[in-house]
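Quick one: structure for this chain?
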Amino acid sequence: MKSTTLGITKTITKNTRSTTKLSHISELAETIKINRMDNETLKNIPLTTILLTYLFVCGILYLIGYWSTFDIDVFSLISIYDIPKSFAFPLLISQGFFVLNVITGNTINLNDDREDISHFITLKKEWGNFKRIPLGMLTSINLWLTAILCGMIVYIPNYKENEIFWIISSFVVAYYLLHRFINHGIVKNKIKNRVARYFVGHFLIFFPISCLSTGKLTSLKILHNRESKYVSIVNIKSAVITSDTTRLKLLGFISDRIIYSTLDNKKIFIINKESCDGIILTK
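Got it. Here's what it folds into:
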């Protein structure tokens, strides 16, 4: 009787294990199927759609860089038509730097065939820890990048509104990421040509950073009243002209709105274009 019970128990245990294995296999097969479907979906997305989406993201970065200086929530104001014109100028700047770097041979300087590209020098295996550890710290690219950015944040007063901070930080971060990208193993295997790899890296890395920093630098010039257009709002029906006696400066146009502020940036006005008959801009 006991042997019969034990036999039934073993059979049930084996069946349970088999059922568990089958469930795991079916889950794994379902996961593989979903991943294949996702890959097929990505392959079916046209390249133009991906490119346009990327350009629109870069345009949004420019708008964020520009309008965040004035603490304006740009997403509540912009329309889809405001985005394309935002990335045109940064794109020209990015491609201009690409051409300049190709002419000056910077594509060769950034190319690094070492296995470990996280240091300025190659740390040899035969070196002892007494030599490798301090040299590894002193020649670490990540450490120097962090030190430069943190140093500027600490020592530059009001760094968020400082143009020098944005210029240096943009160049440092852009060239760091570009160096990492063009020397990555997967990128090297996919894009054999060095100049082509450099161009792709410039477009994917330099371009969005250029959008954000260009928007920020342009707005900072207006914030500090170095490049300002003074605005007067004309309303013919009520014979009223909001003149520039208080020196109102134009911040920009978003969709159907005119945005301007006082010279001290304490008051910002947002009006619809339809609410006035025109504006007068003076330099």
